[in-house]
Write a structure and sequence with these properties.
The chain has three helices and two strands; from the N terminus they run αββαα. It is α+β, with helices and mostly antiparallel strands. The longest helix is centred in the C-terminal third of the chain and has 23 residues. It is globular, with a radius of gyration of 19 Å.
Amino acid sequence: MGRPPSAIHYHVRLLAQSGLLKKSGERREGRRREAEYSMVADAIAVPAHRPSSEDGENTLAVKTMASAFRMAERDIRAALSEDAVRREGEDRNFYAIRTHCRLSPQEMAELNRHLDVMLGVVLESIRREQPQEGDEFVSLTLALVPLPNRTTRSQ
């Protein structure tokens, strides 16, 4: 993972304390016993809610997504250093975009239908017990957020 073992241990402990990971067993590794952990769910979505602090920066959603996007940045850096990146075609495995737009209620509904289909595809692959031949391990990080105080696309 490109991180020191102490950092991995620290973060695994935090995830277990928060209930996102659960201890699923132990194994012997040399003279030591190592804990094994598993996810408590196939995917974890962070509900949007009003900020709990006065400045609004300490909400669970902000902290969680900030961490997710830092991990996405590491994934992107690693992917771009490899020859396996395919940017075009039906078997494309790399796509990155950030944009602002105005969506009508109908367009928003259509976008949400597509997001639901994408989530279904991802969850189905997660639930498979064994990878299938030709499967490729990928990362997907998305955020759809309203911009109520924006008046133009360039802000």
